[in-house]
Every structure is written in C-alpha cells, then in structure tokens.
Amino acid sequence: MVIWVLSSFPRNISYDVDYDARLAAIQSTYAEKMAGSDPEKSTRLAAEQKGLLRSVEAARRAEHAGKSYIGRIGKAIEPLFEPIGIDWRGSVALLTGFVAKEIVVSTMGVLYAADGDAESDALQKALAKSGMTSLSALSMMIFVLLYVPCLATVGAITRETGSVKWTFLNLAYTTGVAWGMAFIVYQGGRILGF
C-alpha cells in the first residue's frame, strides 16, 4: 500500500506527452474503421484498438511513476545500483525488499506499470520493454538472494545480540557482499559478452 501511495502522488504532474489526445485519436480512428465493417473485421479491429489503448495507458502510468515521490527516491539512489545493471525502478524494489523480500516483485509490477493478473506475463513483457537484460536480471536476483533477509530478521539480530552495533555491522556486511557479488556477475558478464 505504501508503494502504491508513493507511486500515485503527487496527482498533478506535467506529462511529456498528451495521453488524452492520443487516446481520443485512437478511439476516433478505430470508430471510423469499424463503421460499416463486417462483424469479423470489427472484432479484429476492436481487439487491436484495445491493445493500443492499453499500451498508451501503460505509458501514462510509467511516466507518472517516474515523476512520483517513489520515482524521485529511486532516481536519487539509482547511481548506487547502476554498476550492477539495475535502474531506478529496480533500486526502489530492492529498497522495499528490505521490509520483506517477497515485496520486490510486486513493487516492480507497480513501478513498471505491468498490467494484468498474477497468471499473466505482463511484468515479464514490461521488463523486456524497459531494457532489463538477462544479465541485469541475474545480477538483481544475486543481490536479492544475498542481502539482509528482511526487517524482522534485523529485529531478531538486535534482540539476540543485544547490540545495535552488531545489527548495523550485519546490514553493512550482507549488503556489501550482495552488491559485490552482483557487481562481479554483471560486470563480468558484460566483459564476457553476455
């Protein structure tokens, strides 16, 4: 819910593209094409129109996410994750994964404006369209695998050791190891041509 709120506000942003005009143009064009056409052609054109409308809406949501509060946070921390092949959206997903690792994927779904149900491949298509390569995806998986498990674990470390110092040492160590291994995988893969 917090991710949705941060990605939804501020409400009034200045878009680079007039999405409403694009949507209206698509609807107008297809209304003309479908007028007087046979039912089979009309059905095909309606499906084509629906796909175009969805892609314009997805582009609007993606631009809004980039200009939202969470987009600003992500762009501020992106330089830390660029060397391991992760863009601002992946950076935010990793940040939210600190609360619980299972949130990483749902955060990416929100930020990449993936549209569809849990059974669809919408996120996979959105990631491919955004330029995430297999190598950067592997790097991200390595990072997620190795960095601190979750906020509950951090609390348990503090409680068990009785020391905030050990907790921060653990956070720094696991995050450093995760970043280092992801860096080796990503940069090594680039050197080898993957």
Summarize the structure.
The chain has 194 residues and is an all-alpha fold. It contains 10 helices and no strands.
Unreliable segments of 5+ consecutive residues:
none
- The termini sit apart by 37 Å
The number of domains: 2
Structural classification: mainly alpha
Strand content: under 5%
Give the helix proportion (percent range): over 70%
For the report, how would you describe the main beta sheet? none
> What is the tally of beta strands?
0
Protein architecture, described:
Helix 3 (39-67) crosses helix 4, helix 5 (88-96) runs antiparallel to helix 6 and helix 8 runs antiparallel to helix 10 (164-191). This protein has 2 domains: 2-131, no CATH class; 133-194. It contains 10 helices and no strands. It is elongated and about 75 Å long. With 194 residues, it is mainly α.
